[in-house]
Amino acid sequence: MPELPEVEVVRRGLARWVVGRGVAEAEVLHERAVRRHAAGAADAVLRMTGADVADAARRGKYLWLPLHREHRVAEALVVHLGMSGQLLVEEPAAPEEKHLRARWRFTDGGHELRFVDQRTFGGIAVVPLVPAPDGGAGGAGEHPDAEWARTLPAPVAHIARDPLDPAFDDDAFALRLRRRATGLKRALLDQTLVSGVGNIYADEALWRAGLHYARRTASLTRAQVADVLAGLREVMTAALAAGGTSFDSLYVNVNGASGYFERSLAVYGRAGGPCRRCEEPVRRDAFMNRSSFTCPRCQPVPRNAHW
DNA sequence: GAAAGGGCCTGGGGGC
DNA sequence: TGCCCCCAGGCCCTTT
């Protein structure tokens, strides 16, 4: 499942293969893939065709390509990969993927960009860029000094910075986290508090911090919040490094958890297996319509848990 | 308006 | 072989 590291790997692929090129033709093959584009597929196609791709930017799990048109960068193509979305850079003659949802051909006649999404939980939209409430995308694009670097796509404006963002404010995060009346993992999955964290890296970071997912956020010490942030940064940085090996590939891969990084996971998907620290069998709980993996010894259930 | 949390989207795979 | 149910998890949307 694409979380921050996987999405950043894709962003880097786009920066290399797509930025600076002109869109000759855009094609939407599945209506559901553009459901977040209010004006419909035809309008989305119209807004992409003839534009130049100015940059490849990211905040949390959202990716976007600011579009240059008539001397302005006022809109962006936003992509969310959802659970199963992939962006592929392919030879125009390459056979169509079974779940191909959208395609872009470029004026140079070179490699095309494809959006493939088995479950269509992801999607694309062309949306206006608005001034960023917190001062910009934080270096997530290739052109931090450009006018558009201080903007965000409208549907992304409410998303918080991620823990790897140099402008992420640890103290402000700790303050907001401890004011919440909720459980720790619920809070970590709230993209308005901290972005880029999904089920997998939340579990991995909590294991590193030795904290249970149902721990009440209000009861956390400053040191424990620091441990959680350190855990998130550690696991995300390692995953990003592992994904880096695919940068040179034409295939802009997003199979992070099921592929190269899977071996490094300490608890996620390892129910019944030995904890890598204490050998206690890893436990799987149903939680928030999904699974949570913990080590019962390293991450004991807290008193006054918030489930 | 903010916060909290339930529910939904889809297709593959396993079990019967 | 075929049908049905379960599962994945991010975020939309309702409720408070």
From TrEMBL:
<dbReference type="GO" id="GO:0034039">
    <property type="term" value="F:8-oxo-7,8-dihydroguanine DNA N-glycosylase activity"/>
</dbReference>
<comment type="subunit">
    <text>Monomer.</text>
</comment>
<feature type="binding site">
    <location>
        <position position="99"/>
    </location>
    <ligand>
        <name>DNA</name>
    </ligand>
</feature>
<comment type="similarity">
    <text>Belongs to the FPG family.</text>
</comment>
<dbReference type="InterPro" id="IPR015886">
    <property type="entry name" value="H2TH_FPG"/>
</dbReference>
<keyword id="KW-0862">Zinc</keyword>
<keyword id="KW-0234">DNA repair</keyword>
<dbReference type="GO" id="GO:0003684">
    <property type="term" value="F:damaged DNA binding"/>
</dbReference>
<keyword id="KW-0863">Zinc-finger</keyword>
<keyword id="KW-0479">Metal-binding</keyword>
<dbReference type="Pfam" id="PF01149">
    <property type="entry name" value="Fapy_DNA_glyco"/>
</dbReference>
<feature type="domain" description="FPG-type">
    <location>
        <begin position="266"/>
        <end position="300"/>
    </location>
</feature>
<dbReference type="Pfam" id="PF06827">
    <property type="entry name" value="zf-FPG_IleRS"/>
</dbReference>
<keyword id="KW-0227">DNA damage</keyword>
<feature type="binding site">
    <location>
        <position position="180"/>
    </location>
    <ligand>
        <name>DNA</name>
    </ligand>
</feature>
<dbReference type="InterPro" id="IPR020629">
    <property type="entry name" value="FPG_Glyclase"/>
</dbReference>
<dbReference type="GO" id="GO:0008270">
    <property type="term" value="F:zinc ion binding"/>
</dbReference>
<feature type="active site" description="Proton donor; for beta-elimination activity">
    <location>
        <position position="61"/>
    </location>
</feature>
<keyword id="KW-0511">Multifunctional enzyme</keyword>
<dbReference type="GO" id="GO:0003690">
    <property type="term" value="F:double-stranded DNA binding"/>
</dbReference>
<feature type="binding site">
    <location>
        <position position="119"/>
    </location>
    <ligand>
        <name>DNA</name>
    </ligand>
</feature>
<dbReference type="GO" id="GO:0006979">
    <property type="term" value="P:response to oxidative stress"/>
</dbReference>
<dbReference type="InterPro" id="IPR000214">
    <property type="entry name" value="Znf_DNA_glyclase/AP_lyase"/>
</dbReference>
<feature type="active site" description="Proton donor; for delta-elimination activity">
    <location>
        <position position="290"/>
    </location>
</feature>
<comment type="function">
    <text>Involved in base excision repair of DNA damaged by oxidation or by mutagenic agents. Acts as DNA glycosylase that recognizes and removes damaged bases. Has a preference for oxidized purines, such as 7,8-dihydro-8-oxoguanine (8-oxoG). Has AP (apurinic/apyrimidinic) lyase activity and introduces nicks in the DNA strand. Cleaves the DNA backbone by beta-delta elimination to generate a single-strand break at the site of the removed base with both 3'- and 5'-phosphates.</text>
</comment>
<keyword id="KW-0326">Glycosidase</keyword>
<dbReference type="InterPro" id="IPR012319">
    <property type="entry name" value="FPG_cat"/>
</dbReference>
<dbReference type="GO" id="GO:0006284">
    <property type="term" value="P:base-excision repair"/>
</dbReference>
<feature type="active site" description="Schiff-base intermediate with DNA">
    <location>
        <position position="2"/>
    </location>
</feature>
<feature type="active site" description="Proton donor">
    <location>
        <position position="3"/>
    </location>
</feature>
<keyword id="KW-0456">Lyase</keyword>
<dbReference type="InterPro" id="IPR010663">
    <property type="entry name" value="Znf_FPG/IleRS"/>
</dbReference>
<dbReference type="GO" id="GO:0140078">
    <property type="term" value="F:class I DNA-(apurinic or apyrimidinic site) endonuclease activity"/>
</dbReference>
<feature type="domain" description="Formamidopyrimidine-DNA glycosylase catalytic">
    <location>
        <begin position="2"/>
        <end position="122"/>
    </location>
</feature>
<dbReference type="Pfam" id="PF06831">
    <property type="entry name" value="H2TH"/>
</dbReference>
<protein>
    <recommendedName>
        <fullName>Formamidopyrimidine-DNA glycosylase</fullName>
        <ecNumber>3.2.2.23</ecNumber>
        <ecNumber>4.2.99.18</ecNumber>
    </recommendedName>
</protein>
<dbReference type="InterPro" id="IPR010979">
    <property type="entry name" value="Ribosomal_uS13-like_H2TH"/>
</dbReference>
<keyword id="KW-0238">DNA-binding</keyword>
<dbReference type="InterPro" id="IPR035937">
    <property type="entry name" value="FPG_N"/>
</dbReference>
<keyword id="KW-0378">Hydrolase</keyword>
